[in-house]
Specification:
- This protein is an alpha/beta fold.
- Helix content is 43%, strand content 14%.
- It is built from 15 helices and twelve strands.
- Strands 3-2-1-4-5-6-7 form a seven-stranded parallel beta sheet, sandwiched between helices.
- The longest helix has 17 residues, at 101-117.
Length: 409
């Protein structure tokens, strides 16, 4: 697709995990297509691994990499952060401000709205990546964040959802989008669809992801302990990742007497981590469209995962294999079954990998996002007949079904 060069600025609070993977891939594709791209993120977040990835991306950012202090929760410091970001963004003369996550989305919509009042022709795009949509709408915190989302929805030109589930969650918790909207699945590069062979001394299970309760590492550790109670022997396991609750999980492993069989590695590239164990376990309590599931499926690794967020959309007709989130008994049983029948797990991994490449492609992801930018800029006609679009004409129906299925768990 021939495109008119645009000046695009991405903003995210925390440059880690899947949300940063999404931005990194998108920014790289956009820069290679001739657009001027910039990135703004938090200055206090990120390990050595994360910072190395930022440095590798930096040469591709014609509009630069800028880091400012950004707090995760709503605080009075948000006012000074907004002012600092405004001064930086004002001088970039961006065509597109693309906010990722609740905080990044709030910054670009507030700042972009002020710049529009000052006469800049700028478009404000927001992708939740789960974010505030994970909150329970019946709890006080959820009501606050969803009310803020409704207010900010009036200051939004384009909305991008990474899964049908996320689109349905937004409609249910926030309301029908006022902005032009798209469902754009996360995508992988072509070389990521090659199977990964495990090491000769591979363990039984791998957990890979952020070390926080939302992702379920505590459930993973407890399931390992349950297996040891039942069999007398704990499976050998690896935990790859970093996060705010790491010390608590290390203490949990020690308290349960699993130090000899559980190894913490810190952050590693996914395909390197996959070599460590025969089975990958993703016991998340909530997700939007997790890259780690896509990466594990594309690498043909046997996978135990929960039925949350967009994961059923990845599994498609094999979604019945997913387990109930937050249910330690079912997670333990699924891991026991994986140990008992490795051939079945390998066959299932091959089946899943075979139907992934066409839908979850980084090139397709970039094309859909860039097309939305161009529509907002008036460079191509907007598809007014389909305000929310994905690979199927029945997207809205599937989104409602996915969300209802999750809500009823």
């Amino acid at each position: 697709m021939t495109t008119t060069p645009m000046r695009i600025v991405h903003c995210v609070r925390s440059p880690i995990g899947g949300i940063f993977r999404h931005i990194r891939d998108l920014a790289t594709c956009q820069a290679e297509a001739g657009h001027d791209v910039g990135l703004i993120c938090d200055s206090s977040t990120g390990s050595a691994f994360d910072n190395q990835q930022l440095e590798e991306l930096k040469p591709k950012l014609a509009l630069g990499l800028a880091r400012f202090p950004m707090q995760r929760q709503l605080t009075i410091q948000d006012l000074s952060a907004t002012l600092a970001l405004y001064r930086h963004i004002r001088d970039l003369k961006a065509d597109i401000l693309h906010g990722h996550g609740a905080k990044g989305g709030a910054y670009v919509r507030l700042i972009g709205s002020f710049l529009k009042l000052r006469g800049q022709k700028i478009k404000r795009v927001y992708c939740p990546h789960g974010g505030s949509l994970h909150y329970d709408p019946n709890r006080f915190e959820g009501r606050v964040y969803h009310t803020l989302e409704r207010i900010l929805g009036r200051l939004t030109d384009g909305l991008i959802f990474v899964s049908d589930y996320e689109a349905a969650a937004y409609e249910s918790k926030v309301g029908h989008p006022r902005a032009q909207s798209r469902i754009v699945y996360n995508g992988l590069k072509q070389d990521e669809f090659a199977p990964v062979e495990i090491a000769d001394n591979a363990g039984d299970f791998l957990y890979i992801g952020m070390l926080r309760d939302l992702k379920g590492p505590d459930l993973f550790i407890e399931a390992l302990y349950n297996i040891r109670l039942k069999t007398g022997e704990a499976p050998r396991a690896h935990i790859v990742g970093e996060g705010p609750d790491e010390e608590r999980y290390r203490n949990m492993v020690s308290k349960l007497g699993l130090e000899r069989t559980v190894t913490f590695h810190g952050a590693l590239p996914a395909r390197e981590a996959f070599k460590l164990a025969r089975n990958v376990v993703i016991p998340s309590r909530a997700e939007a469209m997790p890259y780690i599931i896509l990466e594990a499926v594309a690498a043909e690794r046997p996978l135990v995962a929960t039925r949350v967020g967009g994961i059923p959309e990845i599994f498609g007709k094999f979604a019945h294999r997913l387990i109930e989130p937050g249910h330690i008994g079912k997670l333990t049983t699924a891991m026991e079954n994986a140990l008992a029948d490795p051939d079945r797990m390998a066959d299932q991994a091959k089946e899943l990998r075979g139907c992934l490449a066409e839908t979850f492609s980084v090139d397709l992801m970039n094309d859909r996002v860039t097309t939305l930018y161009m529509e907002l800029q008036g460079l191509v006609p907007a598809d007014s007949s389909t305000p929310v679009s994905a690979d199927s004409a029945s997207t809205v129906s599937r989104a409602q079904t996915a969300y209802a299925r999750s809500s009823n768990r």
